[in-house]
Amino acid sequence: MQSGITASPDLHTQFRSFLTTPTLFALLITITSERLEPHLTIPFPSSSSSETNNNNNTTTSFYTTLQTHLTPQLTPNTALYILLRRHPHHHPSPIIPITYIPTTAPVRTKTLFAATRATLMRELGAGGHSFAPAMFATEAADLVDPRAWEEEGENKGEVMSREEREREGLRVLEGDVVGEKRQMVGMQKAGGMKVGVGEGVREALGGLAEKEGKGLVMLKIDQDENIALAGVEDVDIGDLATTISDTEPRYSFFRYRHEGLHDEQQTTTTTHPIIFIYTCPSGSKVKERMIYASFKGMVLETASVEAGLEIARKLEASSPAEITPEMLGAEFQPRQEQKVGFARPKRPGKR
What we know:
With 351 residues, the chain is an alpha+beta fold. The chain contains ten helices and 13 strands. α4 (107-124) packs antiparallel against α6 and α4 (107-124) crosses α9. It starts with 5 loop residues before the first strand and ends in a 20-residue tail after the last helix.
């Protein structure tokens, strides 16, 4: 999954300057207004630049700079990309890309930074620059632990067990994001925050499961990244376009009145299947599109497991206006099997 976010011209300029300035220790990068932007540059301490090229002095200086200059910039709730220069004395020095995503960061932030990591490497590497093996961290302590680093010769500063750390990092960035969102169903978030399923959501879905006839339950993701109730309406299919928001994404559960012909008895039967409709307007922000796409599975799980809804169809649209009576009617039309009769082959020589 990619986020659609791109690097700003300012970041490209700062990155080129970072590459050609060996006295710079780190370049910190963030995501602002759906753009990759430079956050801060950190120079090596002046004493590091004047040290002789001694392996022990360089290693000591490296860990000291990590602790005194980098870790104060890392907070428990803010994700960052970090480009790190291991040695101030060697130019060019391998640039180590680090993805720092704290475990206590908001789910939206985790999802966004995980999805944008490959874009950052691709855009900054487009000029022919190759990076050292990547590193992933969820705590500042991960970066200052000497066991996380190894020396492979005087000029090499690679990450220890890089294949294992990359697999572990991807698990943290991708697998744990999904797992955390699943755990939010019916549970409290860390820190005692309110539950991930907001007030009235289960009741509204449960009511839709119990009654027959028309009904529409609309859900959204609020600012605290909880599933929230956006509205409950008693509407017909023709009113969906004017009831469901056409400016914000929505998860909608609609009870559809369907009249079908019973094949055996040739009689008309009426059913009331539940249809899940996910709408995401084309003008939605990148973050909105990502978070709503990520939460969709959890919303369906809440509806089916906790509220007992049986979902007959799952539809997606850019606009609620696309969900028309004709569209739903076609969804529930029985498929006609085309029977192909046996065609006797023509006799040779005959036209």
